Amino acid sequence: MAGNSGRPLRPLSCGVIASEEGNDVPGGALGLGSVGSGRSMFAIAEELPRGEGHPGVEKAYLDITGGAPELNDGFRRLVEGATALRESQKRELTIIDRCNLTVLLEPGQETLPNFLAEHKVHVIASLPSYEAEQTDKQRGRKVFERSVQGLRILNQHGYGEGIGLHLDLVFNPPGPFLPPQQCKLQKQYKKELGDAYGIKFDRGLGLVRWFEDV
């Protein structure tokens, strides 16, 4: 299985962060640890901020990240636990998957797109450029082609189609550079990917990296 860099994808531990927003509770991250640490997925989901005992909490987020968090054995159990918690408490909980688009093409992941859609997981995926040459230069040979295939699969399952399944793309420039203005970047991404490949998505996000002299 090949990842963005051309090296095999491995099911490493994936990071889990919960955050909350509200009138009385300042937005903040609650580190819930690693899914690969052997903790119960439902135990992690139970630690998400609740309405009771958390006055003023209006929104909560479960942000799952990692090289390819979907390959972690606990990924789906974590999402299922969070979904059950959201439904049982009738609350606003956004489950976010920082998705490696190429993982959607890996053997054994054929049911992943449907799983994400069924649990209304918000997908945020990194795509360095809408040009194949630049993306492959940064991520590895044929990564752009495989990423486009992954985006098409997500579109086929309703992502980016305006039906409540959110798909965002992240532009992360290599090196110590600022991304273009976000609204212009989003417009250009939508035009280029839409015209050339029929790809749809909701938002284009610019990622700013912080570099320090050492």
From TrEMBL:
<protein>
    <submittedName>
        <fullName>Radical SAM core domain-containing protein</fullName>
    </submittedName>
</protein>
<dbReference type="InterPro" id="IPR058240">
    <property type="entry name" value="rSAM_sf"/>
</dbReference>
<dbReference type="InterPro" id="IPR026351">
    <property type="entry name" value="rSAM_ArsS-like"/>
</dbReference>
